Amino acid sequence: MFAKLIDNNLTIAPKRLIVGDTQVWNADATLYLEQGWFPVRYTDEPGDAPEGFYYESGWEQGEDEIVQTWTLTELPDDIDESEAYSIIFGGDGE
Questions:
Q1: Three-class SS of residue 79?
Q2: Could you say which DSSP state residue 10 is in?
Q3: Maximum pairwise Cα distance, the chain
Q4: Fewer Cβ atoms within 10 A, N terminus or C terminus of the chain?
């Protein structure tokens, strides 16, 4: 998979690249690289976070790839279980 970091958000490369006046479907890696798209390397979450914390996923632009990063983040004090579930797992707890 190829992508760009735009405002620290991972933007996945389209299947159709426009190069000059040509549309290229399912381009090869060389063409994606030439157009400024980088391969994405996913990494494993570091493990179980200590109680009251969670690992937040992020992205870092390297010289020749975009790498997934993990930051240990404290859960806010005034949060209920459903909100915590949503933060950690990206959905509601129901």
A1: coil
A2: E
A3: 55
A4: C
Whole-angstrom distance, CA of residue 30 vs CA of residue 12: 16
Query: Helix, strand, or coil here: 17?
Result: strand
For residue 17, is it within any domain?
yes
Q: How many residues does the chain have?
A: 94
Please state, as a whole number, how many other Cβ atoms lie within 10 Å of the Cβ of residue 75: 15
Q: Tell me the residue range of the domain where 75 lies.
A: 2-89
pLDDT tens-digit map of 37-72: 999 999 999 999 998 888 999 999 999 999 999 999
- Judged on CB neighbours under 10 Å (0-12, 13-18, 19+), 86 is middle
81: in domain: yes
pTM of the model: 0.74
Beta-carbon-side half-sphere exposure of residue 73 (alpha carbons within 13 Å):
14
